[in-house]
Amino acid sequence: MTFFSALRTYLSKVSSGEKSPQEVAAALNAWARESGEAIKQRVEDEVQRSVKRMGFAKQEDLDRLAREVETLKTRLITSNRSSKSAPKAAQAKPLKKSAKKKPARKKSAK
What we know:
This protein is mainly alpha-helical. The chain has helices at residues 3-16, 21-54, 59-92. Helix content is 75%, strand content 0%.
């Protein structure tokens, strides 16, 4: 129902005495509020479809990816620290000394 047809209907009801002007005003306010909500919902739906078609990311998707990147960075830093500390631990162990070789004996000349 368009605004003008609704207005005509309510005016005829006021003229015929079926409704008071206050009732008509309240009904028109309710109709306008409902129509506004319906239009708002249609616009929101169309915007979402257009955004999806254009390939834009939602803020919640960006937030989720940012959290995932931070988690991966933390894991990478943690694994780098543990892998760097392992060789240091190996170096801290005392190295085995190789057995000393005795110098070769000189054979006496005959």
